Amino acid sequence: MEPWSYRGHAVHALRAAPASPEGPAILLVHGFGASTDHWRHNIPVLAQRHEVHALDLLGFGRSAKPAGLPYGGALWRDQLAAYVEERIGRPTVLVGNSLGGYAALAAGAALGERAAGVALLNAAGPFREDQKPASGWGAIARRTVGGALLKSPVLQRLLFENLRRPATIRRTLNQVYVDRTNVDEELVQAILAPSRDPGAFGVFRTVFDIPSGEPLDDLFVQLRCPLLLLWGIRDPWINAPGRRAAFQRHAPASTSEVVLEAGHCPHDEVPARVNAELLRWMEGLPAAPRQG
Length: 292
Fold this sequence. Notes:
Number of strands: 9
Order of helices and strands: EEEEHEHEHEHHHHHHEHEHH
Strand order of the largest sheet: 3-5-4-6-7-8-9
Radius of gyration: 19 Å
Distance between the termini: 20 Å
């Protein structure tokens, strides 16, 4: 456990490394509602060769959940970039799942040469083409009425209370894991525990107001390091085949891709495959100074 704070708020972070780490460091970034616990099957393996870090984004896991913070891509981008600069201090591969994938990509673009690579697992985030306003009265009405309902504090509280029930958490996980072997009590509790923190509902409410953030295609243009896309191609949340096609249209030409028979969280569902593919890809990255 590595104590650290960002903007005066406590951030939960982990570090694991062998005596003489190889290559660049690794920073693992969880998705929405998850935490460092979601990398339980990755950290022990990756840390046999590399210096590995994982942290909880502000608002999630064991990190602080203060009211009034501008939760969204810009905050988490800056949090990750600051962590790389202050705590790692050398070229780092940023690995992110879902919302954490978007944050990892944004931080990788911001870090420039200090980012040794970015690996995305079913990353969230909009493309510029997705940000076009709704057209037609029907589409506008659906968006306006639906948005108004979701902004109701009463409905938000009801939704939050339902989503953090253990049965709901397990049911949701079962929907997005193809192989449900790792949908166990440890995982359910890892998601449930942070939702009981005093500030958790306040963070949840901000989800409905989080700006869409800088488009992925703009971030790809800014990125100066190698990119790896790891797809859980049977992800029901993001239409993975369609999203993969969109990434192929916009990602740098040198991007590497791996398609896995898994759902939204391949790093936890098929960790052996993800660990092997990530380590194989990292072998081809520019060498970093050996750490003693």
